[in-house]
Amino acid sequence: MAYNIINLEDICNSIDKRKVKEILSDFECKLNKDVEQFLKEKAIEFSKQDIAKTFIVMGSFKGNLVIVGYFSIATKTIEVKKNLFNTATRKRLSRFAVNDMSSSVFEIPLPLIGQIGKNFKNGYNKLITGDELLKLACKKVKEAQKIMGGRFVFLECEDKDNLKEFYESNGFVCFGKRNLDRDERETNSGQYLLQMLRDLTNLED
Questions:
Q1: Vertex 182, ends 181 and 186: CA angle to 5°?
Q2: Mean pLDDT of 75-85
Q3: Residue 101: what pLDDT?
Q4: In sequence order, which residues have a C-beta less than 8 Å from that of residue 120 and are 6 or more positions away?
Q5: So what's the architecture of 4-199 in CATH?
Q6: CA distance 44 to 46
Q7: Which of 1, 44, 83, 101 has the most CB atoms at less than 10 Å from its CB?
């Protein structure tokens, strides 16, 4: 299936905010309430303030375009422990880092896939796989990197075996943990999120 990827900012610029919220209300993600809450309550303002850009993924259902998923992208500076990677990967990472040779970590500004999720309303989640949605997000990051430079992307997820295995099967490597902020504890389980990194060099078109 071919998907239409629309920048939420473009939607906001073409119709009024009330109509945008009505469109976004057609999204449900009971598996992760943080994903649903972000899209409905934060995505518009984050986009306006250039904190994070959200992309709506549309697919065809009975002749109509519906929201099948979305993802958001931002930039964040992170610390990556050098000893977690082999020599070749460390060398590639060092090219994008504030590199203190005496330090045990790289400090790197990287694209962050801040939110990603499928729409479970009316079974629309069956119109796209998690692999396909994640690949669309990675391809969007890679498009930006063709203009800005860069090679890596990272994301954060709950410490659950199925999530970790999913991201690892898509080329991500765990490099650390981040303690949950106070406002994140209501919609996430546990006390921290896993941080996972991917080199997009060999991402297939």
A1: 110
A2: 87
A3: 67
A4: 28, 29, 30, 31
A5: 3-Layer(aba) Sandwich (3.40)
A6: 6
A7: 44
Separation of alpha carbons 144 and 147, rounded Å: 5
> Residue 134 and residue 163: Cα distance in Å, rounded?
12
pLDDT tens profile 123-156 = 999 999 999 999 999 999 999 999 999 999 999 9
Q: Give residue 121's identity as a one-letter amino acid code.
A: K
- How far apart CA 136 and CA 58 sit, in angstroms, is 12
- Whether the Cβ atoms of residue 202 and residue 153 lie closer than 8 Å to each other: no
Q: Contact, 178 vs 192, CB < 8 A?
A: yes
* Domain ranges, ordered by start, for the chain: 4-199
Q: What is the number of other CB atoms lying within 10 angstroms of the CB of residue 29?
A: 21
Beta strand 192-199 pairing with 173-179 = antiparallel
Assign 182 a pLDDT band (cuts: 50, 70, 90).
confident
68: Cβ contacts below 8 Å, ≥ 6 apart: 3, 57, 58, 59, 118, 119, 124, 125, 127, 128, 133
By C-alpha distance, which of 115, 114, 171, 136 is closest to 59? Answer: 136
Residue 194's SS3 state is strand
The string of pLDDT tens digits covering residues 24-40 is: 999 999 888 889 999 99
